[in-house]
Amino acid sequence: MRTSLTGDAPLLPSVRVTVAGIVLLVALIPAGCAILDALGPSGTRGVTFTYLGDSTLSVGQPQPVDVTVAVDGVQLAPQRLRVAILPDSTKVTLNATGDTLIPCRAGQASLLVRLLHSSASGLADTTFVLRVIGGAPPGSRCP
Fold this sequence. Notes:
The protein is an alpha+beta fold and 143 residues long. 19% of the residues lie in helices and 34% in strands. It has 2 domains: 9-40; 47-133, Immunoglobulin-like (Sandwich).
């Protein structure tokens, strides 16, 4: 006796149970994620950035960007950080690889440091104030 999968042929009981199980599993996944989110810690945990470099820079003397990151007091292994100069880079800029500060003109700037990814901490960032001293020719700008 042959059965066809087309038409109104009834599904075998084992197929019905399997389909019902898959549908139930797919329906419960979002609910399970919501429960885990509710029971887990809320928000970003205690992330601490420490800038180890000198915050007073001299024109023409590059300095490495040296920042450590700790979560709840435990220092993380070197993380991927994104750094930027705010509000603009007319006083201080970064080299092409973004790991060295290049002071160009006297004044003040801010170094924005953002932790790109850490499953332990979530999204976190901070800024450090930099002061540039020394002279530069009038009208000079950072490269």
